[in-house]
Amino acid sequence: MTTATLSTPLQPASARPDPLGRRYGRMWGRVPRELGYLALTAIIGLVVSITAWGVIGAGSAFVVLGVALLIALMLASRYLGVFDLRRLRWAGTRPIAAPTWDRPFAGKRFLRAVGDVIADPHYWLYALHAAVVTPVLALITFVVWSTWLGTALVAITSPAWATITLANGDSLWNGDRGGENVVGLVLFLTGAGSDAAATGWGIAGVTALGLLMLALLPFITRGATLAHWGAARLLLSRFASEDLRGEVARVDAARLAAVTAEDTALRRLERDIHDGPQQRLLRLQMELSTAERRLDGTRPEATESIAAARRLAAETLDELRALAQGFAPPLLQDRGLSAALGALGHRGAVPVETAIDLPADVPDAVERSLYFVAAELTANAIKHSGATKVRLEARTEDAGASRALVLSVQDDGRGGARIVPGHGLAGAVDRLTGLGGTLTVTSPEGGPTTAAVRVPLP
């Protein structure tokens, strides 16, 4: 006989649901803060509504004064909204991500600052929340929670009030006449005030009702607070597009940091090659030449070996120099990207016409990568297209607040160029991807071919 035993893994303490009593106790723990938030919100809503309607009245009478008061109201609404978000968090609700604000008049002319305030949709939403939504919602929630709490307290204390006698000798809970408050009204409507026993049971029932209402008070205050939280979430929170822009900015910063780190590492390696093995190989060549002269043909075998070693050292030195120039040509480091791109037109067997108009503030990492991309595109056009003429253009373009460096290589060759993985154009694409740039190749059969590069500049 086979026995199968099924075991259920124990849930971690953090995954187990809290007992109902503990959750209810936490709700009661939030009631004082929620009541404080709701009461202060009712006061703020009353004051703001009176002020807002006063501003509207003044603005309708005096246009210039009205515009000034409107700007003041929008600025005040911003700080009032920020204060409301902090109070909501203090009341125990989930935090709401506020917009990223700047100081409205810091480093700006007055009219520019006013225009920025008017053009910012967050100011209008905050003004709507402060002048319209908060007063209306505060009035509704105040009526609900204050009536609920007041009724519960009056009902709970009904046994104490039953002993109070009016000046004319009647009881305050005179059920025959409807009494003087809600408990007496209940006794009157139920007919419980006609005899003492029924009145006692009626008062006990009203007390139980008050206790039930008081037990449900955390749900009332929580619901009212969440109503304000929902309005704030709708009107006072940051736009999703702002989060997206922030994420894009962080990615761009990380990408630029990676490219800059690579550029710094290559520069350090180039300097180390120049100052280390390149200098030692140069010294080795000199020492071998000196040894060759000292032998002066007395030992032909040794002289031949030294000559071979000297040639090998010279070849190694040339390879190191070529390797160092592969990191960045000296012209690029000394005179910048414009001069280095201009020199590309004098290196190939095919004439290269250049039209370069670049600023001097191009970042070093961008200069290095763009130089090698331009060199790759130019070399491809000369070697593989069968072109008789190549044109290299480089300039910057401004599009509003953004700026980009645009580079193009055109040839009159046979066309048919494609971006194939593992080949030169694919390597150019990889370099441009690190800069956030793009490479577009237009090369119909029969030509001409145009390779266009676009790289955003900081």
From TrEMBL:
This is histidine kinase. It comes from the Bacteria. The keyword Disulfide bond does not apply. PANTHER family: NITRATE/NITRITE SENSOR PROTEIN NARX-RELATED, NITRATE_NITRITE SENSOR PROTEIN NARQ. Residues 365-458 form the Histidine kinase/HSP90-like ATPase domain. It catalyses: ATP + protein L-histidine = ADP + protein N-phospho-L-histidine. The chain crosses the membrane at residues 35-56, 62-80, 123-145, 198-220. It holds the Pfam family Sensor. It comes from Amnibacterium soli. Keywords: ATP-binding, Kinase, Membrane, Nucleotide-binding, Phosphoprotein, Transferase, Transmembrane, Transmembrane helix, Two-component regulatory system. GO terms for molecular function: kinase activity. Its EC number is 2.7.13.3. The keyword Chloroplast does not apply. InterPro entries: HATPase_C_sf, HATPase_dom, Put_sensor_dom, Sensor_HK_TwoCompSys, Sig_transdc_His_kin_sub3_dim/P.
